[in-house]
Amino acid sequence: MNEFQVKKSSGDIVPFSTEKLELSLFRAGASPELIEHIIQKIKHDYVEGITTANIHNKAFRILRNASYALAAKYKMKKAILELGHSGYPFEKYISYLLEYQGFNTQVGVIMQGNCVQHEVDVYAKNEEKEIIAECKHHRTYSYKSDIKVALYVHARSSDIISLLKKSNPDKKYRTWLVTNTRFTKDAIAYGKCHDMYLLAWNYPINGNLPDRISLSGLYPISCLCSMTKKEKQLLLDKDVILCRQILENPDLLVDINNRKHHKVLQECKELVGDISHENQIEN
Predict the structure, then answer these.
(1) C-alpha to C-alpha distance for 270 and 66, rounded to whole angstroms
(2) C-beta atoms surrounding 142 within 10 Å
(3) pLDDT tens for residues 2-44?
(4) 29 dihedral zone (left: phi>0; alpha: psi -120 to 50; beta)
């Protein structure tokens, strides 16, 4: 498919591939007919100097008119960016993804290392494995976690794991470094060298954040189109992170306008759907 020139957030002018847009729409669950309609609309409305943000916002609005649930899935990257100002909702969200994999988790726990104490973002364990996870949440997708972050996380987790191994040497231990954005090449290389598990929006190729969200059905409330940003923040402040939590306990919507309850619940139902718990992702 032909490419045209668009302006990125950095100001760079680059070719915009409609094939990439088609793929993102397909992953959101849009039908072939709806995808074609969106592509043709964007081509028709194209003007010189249009930004990638303009294009994605236009696609989002068309999707939202068709289905709130489709729009919610399409804006998932932005939804993860919006998981709270403090970063804590993101840590909690990662703990839910690990619980889906069969781990017992704790968030923000103080753990003793061989040398000093450390605050661990997410500590997860099952009968076979224990995970020390550091979560780096960013509000801008262009931000990358670099080698300095990888070095820091590896040093802290190594101190903790060295003590854990003294009491249970036969158990498997793993360091996780998780970000909602991306890693630099050096950070990835260092992680591979020291057997750290790196998880980001686009890494690894299989089992990245979008894969895990789609597989588990653990959609964050920040993706919902039926509530305002302020309303979603009210829920996040009360530790309501998942659409599934709302479905399991609709009373959590007590502070949300009563007229919206049905739309919110309906959108959550369309998002969560029927999730199989048989599929697992290697950690």
Answers:
(1) 13
(2) 10
(3) 567 877 766 778 787 788 889 889 989 999 999 999 999 988 8
(4) left
